[in-house]
Amino acid sequence: MAQRTSSGSVAPLYAAGFTTAFGAHSIAAGLGAEQSALGGSLLTLGLLLAVYDVAEVILKPIFGTLSDRIGAKPVIIGGLLAFCLFSAAGIFMATPLGLGLVRLGQGAAASAFSPASSAAVARLAGSKNTGKFFGRYGSWKTLGYVLGPLLGAALIWAGGFAALFATMSIVSAAAALWVARAMPRLPIMPKQRYTLKDLAAQSTHPSFLVPTLALACATGALGTAIGFIPLVATDMQLDSSQAMILVSVLALASALIQPRVGKLRDQGKISTRRGMSVGLLASACGLFVVALSPGLLVLVLGAILIGVGIGITTPLGFSHLASTTPQERMGRTMGSAELGREAGDAGGPLLVGAVATAFGVGMGLSVLAVVLVVAALISLIWLKTLSSQPVENG
User: Do residues 125 and 322 touch, judged by C-beta distance below 8 A?
Assistant: First the structure.
């Protein structure tokens, strides 16, 4: 049974969630602008953008499992300190190879503290506050995803990549110190032996697959919106400041609604199955609006709908996973779910980009919207309610 906790003991985990999202997206804003100065090709640019996520895709399930075996707190602190060291090394890197190695190290470090933080939130929250704490955790993570490029661009403009990496180092060091001082050490649960058949059954159970699919789709919509809303705004002859305002509106909508949705979930006023379906449909509607947008105000509406949909889906998905996973493998489940989110973060923009190349941006966004509608129907039809007993998922 999860121990009782206070908001103060969970708050440092929000900082850890912000750090991994900020680290993933903040440098993206500067790499494209500084490509000529770095002397790299477009392929080099793509590799520098992707290497962080590649490390996370490979290592998150591994570090999630490790947090089950040795405890979440040492994995979180170790990952944050490693992130701090790799970021500090980035201050002195000026070549594409050096930046690539730094980004690889940062991604590996984030792979440690990100799933361990999610698992710790689940265990500290307890069954009565799961939605509340995951709502807040997701809110801070969303801010990191969306505000990362804005903050990164400002820091690079002010002091180059050195300023950005120095800031990353300071933020991660502060988060590590906060976790060390404020987060209680969670007891290590007795180990359970699982056969390959057990692992396959857990990983394909609807109570794991469906919320993970929903989280992947929500993150895919987020990653796509960050990249393509400014593009649509530019095509409409809007300036860059207006485009950034649209992204900020999306972030604010998502960040504000997540804690509220989590609280309503804990009070039994929102069902996970219907709530995730509504969230995915809201994001799908937002994508359709952006695809067909005839003006700025309608584009603002689209951004709000996408943000609200993400804000509904994310805390409900993680809360369901936390509520249906035995504590002795919470880290592995969260690591695997984070892997699904990384797949969505990469897959959404790739899908839209591929379709847009052949048929235009509007069609690309519409295709992703259809994918979200299908995922909403799957959530509504296939997902079991939270009133069921915990199952062997993920």
Answer: yes
**110 with 23: CB under 8 angstroms?**
yes
Q: Is the dihedral of CA 236, 242, 248, 253 positive or negative?
A: negative
φ and ψ of 388, to 5 deg? -75, 165
Question: By C-alpha distance, which of 86, 77, 82, 109 is closest to 178?
Answer: 77
Is the Cβ–Cβ distance between 262 and 125 less than 8 Å? no
241 vs 173 pLDDT, higher one? 173
Q: Are 100 and 51 in contact (CB under 8 A)?
A: yes
Render 107-153 in DSSP notation, one character per residue: HHHHHHHHHHHHHHHHHHHTTTSHHHHHHHHHHHHHHHHHHHHHHHH
* β strands within 308-390, DSSP E: none
A 10 A CB-CB count for 117 gives 33
Domain span(s) for CATH 1.20.1250.20 in the chain = 1-184, 196-385
The CATH superfamily label for domain 1-184 reads: MFS general substrate transporter like domains (1.20.1250.20)
pLDDT tens for residues 45-59? 667 767 887 888 888
Q: Please determine, for residue 1, whether its predicted confidence score (pLDDT) is greater than 50.
A: no
d(CA 287, CA 283): 6
Taking the C-alpha atoms of residue 35 and residue 158, their distance in angstroms, rounded to an integer, is 17
Which runs of E-coded beta strand occur in the chain? none
* DSSP H or E segment with residue 61: helix 42-70
Q: How far apart are CA 86 and CA 80, in angstroms?
A: 10
Residue 381 CA to residue 24 CA, distance in Å, equals 34
CATH no. of 196-385: 1.20.1250.20
Provide mean pLDDT across the span 263-284: 92
pLDDT tens per residue, range 366-384:
999 999 999 999 998 887 5
Q: Which residues contact 230 (CB under 8 A, 6 or more apart)?
A: 240, 243, 244, 246, 247
Q: What are phi and psi of 68, to 5 degrees?
A: -65, -35
